[in-house]
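The records we work with from here on pair a chain with its fold. Taken together, the tokens spell out the fold as the letters spell out the chain. To see the layout at work, look at the sequence and tokens printed below.
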Amino acid sequence: MTQSEKTIPVIIIGGGQAGLSLSWYLCREQVGHVVFEARTACHSWDDERWDNFCLVTPNWQCALPGHPYAGTDPHGFMVKDEIIAYVKGFTDSFTPPLREHTRVTSVTRHEGGGYRVVAGGEAWHARHVVIASGAYHDAVIPGYAGAIDSSIMQVHSQAYRSAAQLPEGAVLVVGSGQSGAQIVEDLHLEGRKVHLCVGSAPRVSRFYRGRDVVDWLADMKFYDLTVDDHPLRDGARDKTNHYVTGRHGGHDLDLRLFAKQGVGLHGTLRTIRDEVALFQPDLKDNLDDADRTNADIKASIDAYIAREGISAPVEAPYVPVWEPDGENAPLDLKAAGITSIVWCIGFRPDYRWIDVPVFNGANKPVWNRGVTGQAGFYFLGLPWLHTWGSGRFSGISRDAAWLAGQITGKDIPVA
């Protein structure tokens, strides 16, 4: 250890809900630690969500440690400002040793054991380091986007705010996961002509047989299913989230209904060349597969209702309201009046600043419930770190309590 290094037992990198949840437990256990946050604690909710963003899971699933949802609408869906207030309320509920606007630029193994962390230009030494910076670092935009005429505005979903942000004219949305499907609805409700490139994302109904589907799945213990017990095992981490919305009290996002109302649906985008979009011939398959996933979820709920002898209203099977005509014609962007593109094709993690051997050949971190093969080095807040809720408000407290137990050697109950 050099004379200028500062020493502390635990360093948490990332001051979002994951890092702060672990901080909450470490504060309660009186474990010395510091939380480094490159921006602010609420920045991802404030700076990287559109104006009409809302939760897609009901408010009752918001369960940060010692700070459960306490509002009057547990089965509603908090909008952006309410989410920010919820996270800020959690941060204000204790005194985390949080250092905002302090970016970590390197993490290496320390010659004296533990790890050396450079943050805000200062060097620190810690026996335990927790990476809680999430997995959504670099916005994905394809290389050919740079060749598209500059008269067509391009934004990533991370930077999309509202229809008013975009120039007048039609919009091409690329990607039909949660963000893409919700942004299509946002634009459609504003009266914009929208074209959507439909990928392989599955869908789920908001309500079924008298209840929110999330309520049924919670009763069925789906959210307690660990990644080790999931049929896909580690593959669950790579699956796209089901599209649905909590907007206006919650409802299905049916892309077929959008098409019936005038939204142009196309297959997976192959490329854009000379301002002409070319698509895969998979639109029908993608729509059918999404509906099939939804039907499978409903069937599992039906089986649970029957097995438990629950009285619940019966619903007729879903009947598609629109079918593609089988054509896969290219789309001339300018002829279609398209003046902007919203890229909704995800993110890549950026761990280049971590020089610790915890990654596989695909440069993905390897862990078991957040614990890596390097003593004292952990990850927290990633999708399916342990369960479905690991990257969400619903399950982060359980993961944080468990990692706090690994750090302290104690059995720490979930708050």
Summary: Helices lie at 17-28, 43-47, 80-92, 178-189, 213-219, 255-260, 283-308, 396-408. The radius of gyration is 23 Å. The CA atoms of residues 146 and 154 lie 10 Å apart.
